[in-house]
């Protein structure tokens, strides 16, 4: 049983990678079960199991007696789809990174506000040693992600941290690309400094405003990086 599950997991991931890479485009059909079984050197029940999971994940629409159709996963997907994409981050496009940044821009101001509202001293502690932050790509990427996750954990809604945890593997790679530019590090350092002031004053609304403003600037900088 374990062998079968391992094989179907592998086949599922291979097909997801092929869809993300455009080998199977949206609206096209996957090969028939018989052909997939031959390609992967497994029985058709193993292929069927992998296809059923792809269907539950929003990747494909199965058709009885006919090859499955590849879905527009942005429209037909769900949280499982999102996790699948992140797990295959080595082929994630700039488009997906933009979507992720826009999601972050929507979520972060809320959990920053809540963290200051309900756990002001702990937020202050997270920002208390800013002068020790090394001016390097790796240091900023690690600090920023740690700050995000800890503030999300200090908010009252536990779903914020669950969402952020899903992006562990992709966020640091993306952040290193962003923080490799000195101007980006300077923008973030000024934000951290101003956020510390707001936290010291217990001004949750100012913390939310600062986060909204800085994330909008960060998104604009990311969009402009190739111009």
From TrEMBL:
Residues 5-73 form the HTH gntR-type domain. Gene3D superfamilies: GntR ligand-binding domain-like, Winged helix-like DNA-binding domain superfamily/Winged helix DNA-binding domain. Keywords: DNA-binding, Transcription, Transcription regulation. SMART domains: HTH_GNTR. InterPro entries: FadR_C, TF_FadR/GntR_C, Tscrpt_reg_HTH_GntR, WH-like_DNA-bd_sf, WH_DNA-bd_sf. This is GntR family transcriptional regulator.
């Amino acid at each position: 049983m374990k062998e079968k599950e391992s094989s179907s997991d592998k086949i599922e991931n291979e097909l997801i990678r092929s869809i993300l890479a455009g080998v199977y485009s949206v609206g096209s059909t996957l090969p028939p079960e018989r052909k997939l079984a031959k390609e992967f050197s497994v029985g058709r029940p193993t292929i069927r199991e992998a296809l059923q999971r792809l269907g539950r994940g929003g990747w494909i629409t199965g058709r009885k007696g006919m090859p499955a159709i590849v879905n527009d996963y942005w429209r037909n997907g769900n949280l499982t789809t999102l996790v699948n994409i992140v797990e295959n981050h080595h082929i994630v496009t700039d488009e997906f990174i933009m979507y992720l940044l826009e999601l972050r821009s929507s979520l972060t101001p809320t959990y920053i506000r809540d963290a200051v509202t309900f756990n002001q001293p702990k937020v202050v502690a997270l920002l208390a040693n800013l002068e020790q932050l090394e001016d390097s790509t790796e240091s900023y990427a690690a600090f920023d992600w740690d700050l995000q996750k800890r503030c999300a954990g200090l908010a009252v809604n536990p779903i914020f941290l669950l969402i952020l945890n899903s992006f562990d593997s992709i966020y640091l790679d993306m952040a290193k690309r962003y923080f490799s530019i000195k101007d980006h590090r300077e923008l973030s350092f000024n934000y951290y400094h101003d956020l510390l002031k707001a936290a010291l004053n217990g001004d949750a609304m100012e913390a939310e405003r600062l986060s909204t403003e800085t994330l909008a600037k960060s998104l604009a900088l990311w969009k402009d990086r190739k111009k």
